[in-house]
Write a structure and sequence with these properties.
307 residues, alpha/beta, 16% strand, disordered N terminus, binds iron/sulfur cluster
Length: 307
Amino acid sequence: MTAQPVIDGQDARPGDGSAALPPTVRASLSPSRAADFKTCPLLYRFRSIDRLPERPTVEQARGTLVHAVLERLFDLPAAARTPAAAGDLVAPQWDRLVTEEPELAGLFGAGDDADAAEFLRTAAALLEGYFAVEDPRRLEPAERESLISAVVDDELLIRGYLDRLDVAPDGALRVVDYKTGGAPREAFEARALFQLKFYALVLWRTRGVVPRVLRLLYLKDAEVCDYSPDADELLRFERTVVALWQAIEQATARQDFRPRPSRLCDWCNHQAHCPTFGGTPPPFPVAGPADPLTDARSGPAVPGADE
Ligand code: SF4
């Protein structure tokens, strides 16, 4: 098994991560989509092959907003990164997100100021959770919302957006992921760690350094979960990712994506099409995406969109 660095932190074709790819690369996989298949193959099919629309939920929008505020917070001089400054960013960042994604405005009915105000208040409360576990005045992130990618097994581009990367003076890497969801942590922790290992694998393959710490920051509970991978583990993980991709290819060839019910079904947008809930999947698309490397829906989820 081989791996080659491709793009690290920048991207000549924004969003698709496909610049300067070796000609052997024929598919791409983001941690979100890989985690979808691992969680439930039918969910992967609905999202990546059928491309069924998903309504943004209030919870997802709140996650995107909090990620945006935390990213902007680090634009401020270190001494100015206070809870009050973060609070002041909430409304302007929400206005910006709604301008960029007008469907977000539909989350609240026209004139539903009370719900919109409560939404902003709960986003601010999550930021209080952030300040309970970190002091951003003492941090200088090396990267924020950075798209990273690597090729594994010669054929598969793996890529995703880091929330934050901290680099210590001795070169040690710490990958930080903000979790804003209100869902029970035990239902999502395996998925969250899978995504962090995915980033760790890309960083190891592109920079030759195994991240010292993979950090999940649970803002709702104001808790930190640190995990330290090692090279052997990442090697095994790489095999797992390649095997997962092979399983996706086989399922696609057979048009056979089974539902795998779990507690995560409560957060699934597609129960109406899922046999587990009495639904019927749409006919399998006749032809898949012509070029999986330019398939926008197979691209990595933006930070905060997968909470
Ligand atoms: S409802 Fe559950 S079983 Fe059905 S597609 Fe969604 S996650 Fe899979």
